Amino acid sequence: MKAQRKDMFTQLIKRYNAEREAFLQCILTGDESWVHHYDPECKTRSIEYRHITSPNPIKFKVFASARKVLFTVFWDIKGVVNMGFLEQVQTANSDSEQYI
């Protein structure tokens, strides 16, 4: 593996030395990360109308990790090219709606 990486690095350096800025402009890279996603209840939706002498309502604990989504971002020398969220059951490919 180390020898293969060294060979690839040597090829990239040769190509950079030959093409310079044009070589950097054709590089596209990306990253991905699993993020927890949930929609917190806003204050106005949680308001309850009750009588002054009524006991306070019991609130159930909401878990912050309601679901996980895969956040992906792709960029080149000019900046972000595309980004999107994928559910756990989806696959990132050219047919994905987020990447059209």
Automatic annotation (TrEMBL):
One of its GO terms (molecular function) is nucleic acid binding. InterPro entries: RNaseH_sf, Transposase-MT_Hybrid, Transposase_1. This is Transposase. It comes from Elysia marginata.
